[in-house]
Write a structure and sequence with these properties.
The protein has 16 helices and 4 strands. The chain is mainly alpha-helical. It has 2 domains: about 140 residues; about 90 residues, no CATH class. Strands 1-2 form a two-stranded antiparallel ribbon. A two-stranded antiparallel ribbon has the order 3-4. β1 and β2 form a beta hairpin. α1 packs parallel to α3, α4 packs across α5 and α6 runs antiparallel to α7. The longest helix has 20 residues.
C-alpha cells in the first residue's frame, strides 16, 4: 500500500522527510544511517509520544527487517524503536489524546512480532537480552497475548545460557506473566528482589522491596522500578523515610521523575505551606536533598519543578533554612 507521507506528521511537522530516512537505513552511509535512527527517535516517536507517521514508519521498519534489507548496524536500534513503539501503546492506552492513533500503531507493532522473534532465536549472545526486552514489550500488547507462552520459553532458554544478568532475564519473564515466586528465596539478592517486584503481594515480597530501597540497587535491578514498588507497598511515606533519604542524597538530577522526585511527591501529597509545618520525615527528606550537589543547578527546570510542586523553595539555601 502506498503511503502519502505528506498527509502524515511527526513531532516537527509533515513527515515528507521520513521515507528518505527509512531508505537510508538500507542504502545510506554511516552518517545517513545515524541521522535516520535519530529521526525515528526524535521525530517519529518523540519522547515516546506517537504521531500519525509512527504506525506507517513501524511497518516500513518491519519490512526492512523481514526482508533482510536493514543495514546490519541498524538492527539493534530498529528493534529498540519497535519496542519503544509498543511501550507507547501500553503506556498511553488511557490517554484520550492518542485514542485516534493507538489502534493503528498497536496493529503495526503486533505485525512486527513474528519478524522479531526469529531474530531473538538466532541472536548473538551479546545482543540477546536487548532483543528479548524489546520483543517482550511487543508481546505485552493484548493482540499478541497468545504468543507470550512461546516467548517465555525462549527467554527462559536464553536466561539459562548466562547471556547477561540473570535478574534482567527474570524481569522479562515477569513481564510475560511467568510465576517467579519460587525465586523469592534464591541465593542471589538481585534475583530475590526481581521476583519480589514481579509479585509484590507474595509473602515476604514487601519486606524485600522496602529493605532494598536504602542501598544502591543490585545489578539487574533499576532504581526507578524499586522506588515505584516501594511507594506502592508502603503504608505511607513515614515507613520509607529513612531509605528515601538515602536515595535523595545519592540520586542524580535525572531522577526528577521516577527517582528522588517520585519520593518527594510521595512525601508531599499536599504542597508544603507555612500553616502546615513539615513533619519530621519530610524535614529529613529536605535535608537529604540539600546535601545532594546534583540537584541544584539553577538552569535545570525539571528539578526546580519538583520542588515547586511540593510547595518547597527552589533554591538550596532556602530549602536548607526550611529544613533547619
Amino acid at each position: 500500500m502506498t503511503v502519502d507521507w505528506s498527509r502524515l506528521g511527526h513531532a516537527y511537522g509533515r513527515a515528507t522527510d521520513t521515507p528518505g530516512h527509512v531508505a537510508a537505513l538500507e542504502f545510506g552511509d554511516a552518517d545517513a544511517r545515524q541521522a535516520a535512527l535519530d529521526h525515528l527517535d526524535i521525530a517519529v516517536l518523540h519522547q515516546g509520544f506517537p504521531r500519525t507517521a509512527t504506525a506507517p514508519t513501524v511497518r516500513a521498519v518491519t519490512a526492512l527487517l523481514a526482508e533482510g534489507r536493514a543495514h546490519p548496524d541498524t538492527i539493534e536500534p530498529l528493534l529498540e524503536f519497535l519496542g519503544d513503539a509498543a511501550t507507547s501503546v501500553t503506556d498511553l492506552a488511557d490517554n484520550r489524546y492518542f485514542a485516534g492513533i493507538l489502534p493503528d500503531l498497536a496493529d503495526a507493532v503486533a505485525q512486527a512480532y513474528p519478524v522479531v522473534l526469529p531474530l531473538l532465536a538466532a541472536s548473538p549472545p551479546d545482543r540477546a537480552l536487548l532483543r528479548a526486552e524489546n520483543l517482550v514489550a511487543i508481546a505485552r500488547l493484548r493482540s499478541v497475548a497468545d504468543r507470550r507462552e512461546e516467548l517465555a520459553a525462549l527467554v527462559l532458554e536464553w536466561s539459562e545460557r548466562g547471556a547477561g544478568p540473570r535478574a534482567e532475564w527474570l524481569r522479562c519473564l515477569g513481564q510475560l506473566g511467568v510465576d517467579l515466586r519460587d525465586r523469592l528465596t534464591d541465593p542471589d539478592p538481585a534475583i530475590r528482589l526481581r521476583a519480589a517486584l514481579a509479585h509484590e503481594d507474595a509473602p515476604g515480597a514487601r519486606e524485600l522491596i522496602l529493605a532494598a530501597l536504602a542501598g544502591p540497587p543490585p545489578p539487574g535491578v533499576h532504581q526507578f522500578a524499586l522506588v515505584a514498588a516501594a511507594i506502592r507497598v508502603a503504608a505511607d511515606f513515614d515507613e520509607i523515610a529513612t531509605a528515601a533519604c538515602q536515595v535523595a542524597g545519592r540520586d542524580s538530577w535525572a531522577g526528577f521523575d521516577d527517582g528522588w522526585g517520585a519520593l518527594v511527591r510521595f512525601a508531599f501529597p499536599k504542597p508544603y505551606a507555612p500553616h502546615r509545618p513539615l513533619t519530621e520525615p519530610q524535614r529529613a527528606l529536605v535535608r537529604a536533598l540539600v546535601t545532594n550537589d546534583q540537584l541544584w543547578d539553577s538552569t535545570n527546570g525539571s528539578c526546580r519543578l519538583v520542588f515547586t510542586r511540593a510547595g518547597l523553595p527552589s533554591t538550596r539555601s532556602a530549602c536548607g533554612r526550611l529544613a533547619g
